[in-house]
Amino acid sequence: MSLRLKVSLATSAALSVFACAGVAQGQAFYLQEQSARAAGRAFSGEAADTGAQSLWWNPAAIGGLDQGDAAIAAAAILPKGKVVDNGTLIRRPGQPAAAIGGQSVSRDPINNGVLPSGAIAYPLTDRVSIGLAVTSPYSFTTDYDADSWARYSADKTKLRTIDIQPSIGIALTDWLRVGGAVNVEYTDASLGNALPNLSAALPDGAQKLKGDGWDLGWTAGVQMHNDFITVGIAYKSRIQHNLKGSLEVSGLVGPLAAQNRTIDGATAQFYTPAQTIVGARLRATDALTLNAQVVRYNWSKFDAIRLGAPINQALPENYRDSWSLAGGVDYAVSPALTLRAGVQHANTPTQDGRRDARVPDSDRWNYGAGATFNVTSRFSIDAAGNYVDFKNAPIDRITAAYAGTAAQTPILTNGRLEDAHAFIASLGGRFRF
């Protein structure tokens, strides 16, 4: 196998893994748990709410603040599910197709995790406020067993991002707020997967890729409001990500042994999607507020992973644009206690026939409930719980190790994501100063 092909295969695996985060509870590789208040109503009115907790969704949320506002939160994510082999075959050179072997059921391959977030905003005048949100929108760890049937497309993976969003919000009039922000995003990833040797009697080889990079995007939004209703519209730009790192290949024997090496300087470029967010909050009574939100994700921009020199290839991903739709309520039981509930539906950008074990994403329903308790006039506690139910989906993307060489080894994937769900517990605090 040529150096060009080997780096191509490994880098493709590294980037397509980002979508695996979708099994936790977001959409593809987007995690939305950036506020405990928002989680309680299933993210149904964030573009139209006010204060630092809504900065991620709409920087106009801080326009016209009359005091400082800060919030911190953490979401414990507990995913469950099975990735099941239904007859995956491997065809080594000069040999008939054979069963992939290994464990036929991989249970709970995505690890439990804690997702932190925080935001702060402060008024400069009675109309202008500045703010800062720090979030981790794409973060997870997945760990398949070394003998899993999915080992040739996924083994051990760790992904961490930090998004730093300085923002400004302005109340242009008594009914119109506008805002803008820059998104400075750091991404760090490491992953591995097995490589088949030319004989099934030999142990597998392995490859591990590590990479990181800093990239920029932007967010802009407006909010229109009166005494009864607020409508918020925001746009989060796509971000062009550029990763640079190293690739290590080991354990190959026989004719493939010459490919065992460490390669520095592997690079790749891909896009995370733009989001168009429309939210509304209607004060139905003094106690009851109705919320709704729809998000359009421009996932079709993630059409390929473009590899830099010396590879200079484009690897197709073929994601499609997708939507999420949510509705919820806030009910003020007393001046000290507000209860929340909501439901959200999202369809996956991954497509049947192009889904692999590293990207076991599917359509899902998110059910949320939560509460806010005002401990004092300046400090409150938010808590929420969510249950996310994923639709069963096929895992059926055909791949090939050592593609384009005499050692080409097709993997005829035939699997399924089954019984996938997640529990999320969120806790946060809000401070006014």
UniProtKB/TrEMBL annotation:
Gene3D superfamilies: Outer membrane protein transport protein (OMPP1/FadL/TodX) (2.40.160.60). Residues 1-21 form the signal peptide. One of its GO terms (cellular component) is cell outer membrane. Keywords: Cell outer membrane, Membrane, Signal, Transmembrane, Transmembrane beta strand. It is a multi-pass membrane protein. GO terms for molecular function: long-chain fatty acid transporting porin activity. InterPro entries: OMPP1/FadL/TodX (IPR005017). Its main location: membrane. It is found in: Cell outer membrane. Belongs to the OmpP1/FadL family. This is Long-chain fatty acid transport protein.
